[in-house]
Amino acid sequence: MSEAVKHCRGCGRDVPLTGFARDCNRGDGLQPRCRECVAAYGAERYRIRQAAKGKAVRSLADVPVGHKLCRQCDQIKPHSEWHRNATASDGLATRCKACKKVQGRAGHLKRKYGITEAERDRMIAAQGGVCLVCREGPAEHVDHDHGTGKVRGVLCFSCNAALGQFKDRPDVIRRAAAYVEGNLWNPTLVAQGVCRRPS
Description:
There is one protein chain. The protein has helices spanning 35-52, 97-113, 117-126, 157-165, 170-180; strands spanning 5-7, 14-16, 67-70, 75-78, 82-84, 92-96, 141-144, 151-155, 188-191, 194-196. The chain is of the alpha+beta class. It has a two-stranded antiparallel sheet with strand order 1-2. Strands 3-4 form a two-stranded antiparallel sheet. β5 (82-84) and β6 form a beta hairpin. The longest helix has 18 residues, at 35-52. The relative contact order is 0.05. This is Endonuclease VII domain-containing protein.
């Protein structure tokens, strides 16, 4: 048994009934134009209204099936390059994964440190592109004072992690430096749990 169809007044095709939205004012309970025609008509009307307001109107892109246009980078990409979004009409996010990643990094810098990517890049350039602590590793991680939130510089991964392990305590860092230099006292074990300082 063939599926029931209806003739669309817009495109002139015979479209299955599921391709029409409901309209209780019609005899058959369906709109006279298929969903695709209604969407295209609505989009065109929207573009006309926006142009009348003097706003910039983007041209419609010819997007192949299984692809979507990213309005952020203006590139047509396959659906695999998009995150899912159940609330969107097409089930996909509004920006491609690459654009979302870039925007996520910029948003993270602004939220956590209160700086832009340009400000971070200027700091890295002022440091000569290297970590402020070891002066060898690449400056990649923004370092900040956990108490005040003030950004101190951009460090390499290892130095940033080390400061975190030392809990940003200068006294502990100084003792660690003295230990590495061999200047800390070495206790002598007299009995279990009992140490004696050297004289």
